[in-house]
From TrEMBL:
Signal sequence region: none
Gene Ontology CC annotations of this record: plasma membrane
Origin superkingdom: Bacteria
Main subcellular localisation: membrane
Protein name as catalogued: DMT family transporter
Membrane topology annotation: Multi-pass membrane protein
TM region(s), chain numbering: 15-37, 49-67, 79-100, 106-123, 135-154, 166-183, 203-225, 240-260, 272-291, 297-318
Membrane found in the keyword field: yes
Keywords, in A-Z order: Cell membrane, Membrane, Transmembrane, Transmembrane helix
Length: 321
């Protein structure tokens, strides 16, 4: 399917397909928030490089099935894939995993949860701009939902982390927000410039571009973790769990999540797609509650309801254009 021309409202079928792809990507990306909690004794660098090494290996295997299309990519496509891989993959997850380990999941999840607002606002200054009076209602509802959900979560921070770790975790989470505000907007605009580029081919290309970066990162990590008594480089104290989770993230969150997001980016205006990253926030909260064996309180449930309502308002706003 051809990408949506700038300024044109998506047809109903295209809109439904795009929202479904964004939902699938969000459910898969939510996994990245709980894995650092499952591997608390693994340094953030090992989580980031391990995940994307898995992504790169999977992309290398898949490349043989899509070799003719990959050979048609131009030099600027590969440079863009490398750029997206560095900032949107390696650095983003490095910042995020470090923030989660320093401040636990609630604070980074809250800050990452602002991405639907931030991306929608930044994207709406582009060529696909929707009148602010139509965009703002959904953003206000989503922002209120984020605040209510995280009011419950932030109440746990004082007992879970010290002030220094809390502050550093917040800075790293903000860096992750910057990286992932830049990534979907840049990725979406590139896909619109290259309408013949398929979602699957572009996902594989990003994985192939990520592979050497992750391999170099792993190599440099060996110098930091080679000291006796430190981290047991390269697989750590729980090698089977580590390898299994890294491959799971590489396959599900990285390759399949990227593929679904590319499809959503082709079908939806960037300002709407940005709002739909709220699915990642909802999935992250759900997985964190499951991991902790706890149920969300009434305030959190109300916030979740508002997040879903905000998405519905956003979809309707673009349908009405």
């Amino acid at each position: 399917m051809a990408p949506l021309p700038a300024g044109q409202a998506p047809a109903r079928r295209t809109l439904v397909e795009g929202v479904a792809c964004a939902l699938g990507a969000g459910l898969l990306w939510g996994l990245v928030f709980v894995v650092p909690l499952m591997l608390p004794d693994y340094p953030p660098a090992m989580l980031s490089f391990g995940r994307y090494l898995g992504f790169g290996v999977i992309a290398l295997l898949l490349a043989w099935t899509d070799l003719p299309r990959l050979q048609q990519l131009q030099r600027q496509d590969w440079w863009m894939a490398l750029e997206l891989a560095l900032l949107g993959n390696i650095l983003y997850y490095l910042f995020l995993s470090a923030a989660i380990q320093l401040a636990d999941a609630p604070l980074p999840t809250m800050l990452i949860g602002t991405l639907p607002i931030v991306i929608a606002i930044v994207a709406n200054f582009g060529s696909e701009a929707l009148p602010w009076r139509r965009l703002l209602p959904s953003l206000v509802v989503i922002a209120t939902g984020i605040a209510l959900v995280n009011r419950h979560e932030l109440a746990q921070l004082d007992a879970q982390s010290g002030a220094r770790d809390y502050f550093l975790g917040a800075l790293l989470a903000l860096a992750a927000v910057f990286a992932w505000t830049w990534y979907p907007i840049r990725n979406s605009r590139w896909l619109r410039r290259r309408p013949t580029l398929t979602s699957g081919t572009w996902a594989i290309a990003q994985g192939l571009a990520t592979l050497p970066l992750a391999a170099i990162g792993m190599l440099f990590a060996s110098f930091f973790f080679a000291e006796p008594g430190g981290f047991d480089y390269p697989l750590g104290p729980r090698p089977l769990r580590y390898v299994g989770l890294m491959l799971t993230l590489g396959l599900c969150a990285s390759w399949l999540g990227t593929l679904l997001w590319n499809r959503a980016s082709k079908r939806l205006p960037t300002a709407l797609a940005g709002q739909l990253i709220v699915f990642e926030t909802l999935a992250a909260f759900a997985y964190a509650f499951i991991w902790r064996g706890a149920l969300p309180g009434g305030t959190a449930l109300l916030g979740i309801g508002l997040l879903v309502g905000g998405v519905i308002l956003g979809v309707r706003a673009f349908r009405a254009v």
